[in-house]
Design brief:
156 residues; alpha/beta; Nucleotidyltransferase, domain 5; 5 strands; 39% helix; 27% strand
């Protein structure tokens, strides 16, 4: 992939699983150096749902659609593997976790379907980073996600 138009850094967090959760995204434009931070939270959720929500909200925040090159950088193997290895099979199996009759549905199918529709709008590539390893944007996303959990706790 050529230099991306947007680098999207994301993270999700949960205090308890399920429990109150937070998500965060940083959108960085390499050509201008501009950055935008967004975050939010939910009262009763799971870590995986927050990881998916971070990517969904980050992609929604990109103003220009179509033909924008986006690099997603995440510490979530669930998100990266889902987008690069599993999602085509899920779509082929009508969002089931196998081909056999009675196969269970994909977990978090509502978010995966929304994410699948969003990634079709961009020329995507994916990068997995280790969480809590000193990666500046990943660490910042984690701080924002944890702050969103605290905001949820205060507001409810």
């Amino acid at each position: 992939m050529d230099t991306p138009d947007v680098i999207l850094y994301t993270d999700g967090a949960c205090s308890g699983n399920p429990g109150p959760g937070g998500w965060a995204a940083i959108l960085k434009h390499p050509s201008t150096g501009k950055c935008k931070e967004i975050s939010g939270g939910q009262r009763d959720t799971t870590n995986n749902r927050m990881e998916l929500t971070a990517v969904i909200e980050g992609l929604r925040a990109i103003k220009a659609k179509k033909c924008w090159r986006v690099r997603l950088v995440s510490d979530s193997e669930y998100v990266i593997n889902g987008l690069t290895q599993w999602i085509d099979g899920w779509v082929a199996n009508n969002w089931k976790r196998g081909k056999k009759a009675g196969a269970p549905p994909v977990k978090n199918v509502d978010l995966w379907q929304e994410l699948h529709a969003l990634v079709q709008q961009f020329d995507m590539d994916y990068e997995h980073v280790r969480g809590h390893s000193g990666h500046p944007e990943n660490e910042r996303c984690d701080q924002l996600a944890v702050a969103a959990i605290e905001a949820v706790r205060r507001d409810h």
